[in-house]
Amino acid sequence: MTIEARIRELGNRHRTLDETIQQEIRRPSADPTRLRELKQRKLRLKEEITSLEARTH
What we know:
Blueprint: H1 3-26, H2 32-56
C-alpha cells in the first residue's frame, strides 16, 4: 500500500469516527467514557495522518 493510499484510508476512518462521535453526542444519555475513547482514537489517527503527510513532502 502506498503512503497516499494509507493516508486516504486513515482519513476515511477519521471521518467515520467523527460521525460516530457526533451521533454519540446527540444521544440523550451520551456515554462520557465512550466519547473520550472515540476522541482519543480520532486524535491518534490524525497524528498518524500528519506524520505520513510529512513523509510525502
